[in-house]
Amino acid sequence: MQETSTRGPLSNQANIPSYGLRAGSVLCNVHARSKKHCLEILSELLAGSDAEIANEEIFSSLIDRERLGCTSLGSGVAFPHCRLSGVKASSGALMKLSDPVDFDSPDGNPVDLIFGLIMPEEIDLNHRAEIAAVTALLSDSAMQARLRSATTSKNLYEAFVAGQREASPPAVRNVSRGA
Question: Looking at 31, 37, 81, 127, which residue is catalytic?
Fold first, then answer.
């Protein structure tokens, strides 16, 4: 990882879900050579949220999930996610690449924004709603622009939180499980 992440106080707003994202799991200006390299870096970020889950296990699960179908949302955004045994609560990570990489996107656009999510092996309706909410949030062009304007990991985290506040419809706010 090229830039160390910024750790700081979280914006814990009661009505804004965190999707398991912490300031320490956000990296800006990441140099990745390929989709696989992106998933390796993302696995390291996600492993930092749960000391009991090895980044190699997360990486393997993310690769398996990609084999089922590309997790690119189009417009330069990808949402790799997977389920893992031993995970008790969802954990998220966010990266902004310094240069976009090919992600086998259906629209053919390379990816520069990547939000990763690991979830418990057994998911419920709240987890499914969480996936839908993250997908909607990341598909929003205003949110994409906000994230792309960030120049540091701290700015990227703050942009995500601020974008949630602005774009969060009531359905997204109800997803919060008190993370």
Answer: 81
